[in-house]
Fold this protein.
Amino acid sequence: MDAVRAFLRHPSGMVGLVVLLIVVVVAIIAPIVFPVSPWEMVSAPFTPPGEDGLLLGGDTLGRDVAAGVAYGARVSLVIGIASAMAAMVIGVTIGAISGYFGGKVDLVLMRMTELFQTIPAFVLAILLVATFNPSLLTIILTIGAVSWPPLARLTRAEFLRLRNREFVEAALCQGEGTLRIVLGHILPNAISPILVVTSLTVATAILLESALSFMGLGDPNLMSWGFMIGAGRTVIRNAWWMSVFPGLAILITVLAINLFGEGLSDVLNPRVSRRRS
Amino acid sequence: MIRLGSAAMIGLMTLSRIAQLIAVILVIATFNFVLVRAAPGDPAQVMAGQSGASDPKLLEDLRKEYGLDKPYAVQLASYLGRVIRLDLGYSYRQRRAVVDLILERLPATLLLTVTAFCLALLIGTTLGALAGLAAGSVLDTVFTVLSLVLYATPVFWLGLMLVLVFSVTLGWLPPFGYETINVKFSPLAHALDIAKHMIMPVTSLAAIYLAIYARLMRSSIIEVAQQDFIKTARAKGLSGPSIVVGHMLRNALVPVVTVAGMQAGALVGGAVVIETVFAWPGLGRLTFDALLQRDYPVLLGIFLILSIVVIVLNLLTDLIYKLIDPRMTTGAA
């Protein structure tokens, strides 16, 4: 409860949270405000913003850009959150094994983590999505598969810090099993920095998704911000609104998540935050 | 003695990094090999791409060439052997060897990436140092807000917005391409023409890293300023500027260079998107075309080569790191 109260007094964190909630509301009510699918033609092609009842204008096929931006929020949030979760599951598992067991296991896993952190993640993501064909699931799994290394390193460091503490030894003496010690005793004590980094991973995941769909690797059935910008790229001379508004949507959402995540970090880990800033 | 020792140490480290490089190439090649087998459809169809998959003769040739009837271990060994000899396969779409296609495009990508990397590091650390020395000032606040916004901006969208402002609206800069075509230039004018085409792609690619390095340098400078040796330098009567240049900058740069190396992969990934925006004739553009045609051998080759580029960039920043870290050159570490 103290953390909640402290967060309420964190100005930039609160700005992030409020903006994020607005994006969430837009995503939820998109089908109510825009009952016509964002793929449907509703006006003449290249309708400028404000004309013909289209607040943000129409695209090359006369589709409503505002509807696209609203539906795009659903795609970005779902993919962002789900792939950050996937990255957390992979990263925490690898980091926990590495930090708890140490030795050769640690060495091998950390070498692998370093390798994944070094190679160009975006190029790997392109290759993975192209291999397994773009769909909501493959995109989420791909972004998760290239985003876990920071979480693995963080979890490992936390486990190294905690594994020799008295409460772990006490649990060992009581004969508790490894899995129970890891999940029941160490992980709960390491969870707050993990949650902070996961929330920041949502932001990078949204950026990664937008870049993938900009390159033509989005789920072909979903209207996404990156896809809209990609479609507006070649007609930017005639229809600036086609690429400007979806881009602003990405910027605002990602900025809000980063502000929220940093606020969370200040409240949950004052020690780490102070050292960082 | 000490100088020689550190030189020998750097030599040894370089050797071990080259061994590491070869190991990484083999790991990535193995990964590529597994990926082709994991893809839906049989490997010959995957390698032939959409256009080739309907040609039974080509599929038969491919199966023979890659020995697809042999055990996996044999296939893998022969594949790794090819990769080590820089044989990355054949693009059936473009009817050319993949390695030729890539090497032809690599210089343009390197020009873009290395320029952006150097500029981001140079300007980012300078701005960060200024902000750190003036921590809490208006300038510092402006930098902080700006870098937060840049963090949240998709690179490809930033590129498009630059096009919108500087090409479409103002007409100052060419919106895409590498050079003005169909014009005969003197060598100097040609270089200037390329530089003009580079301004926007380099700016959009460098912007986010500039923000990252500036923020790092800022906190690094603030941290270094509180250390004892700075107080000692002040006590010795050294003036402000000579303390900053002689004592603070070098120490503050160390963590920035470390992170800069770690960001090389992301920078190269960013170049792939930026090249698509600006029709820059490098590997990113090649990736985009290969994606449209599902030209799989080319995608695999690009992934391998770009990984090597990133590891080499890492090696270079490592060397810079060894050269600037005061603890390394005094032989204390």
Notes: Residues 40 and 46 of chain B are 8 Å apart (CA to CA). The mean pLDDT of chain B is 83. Chain B touches chain A through 49 residues (CB under 8 Å).
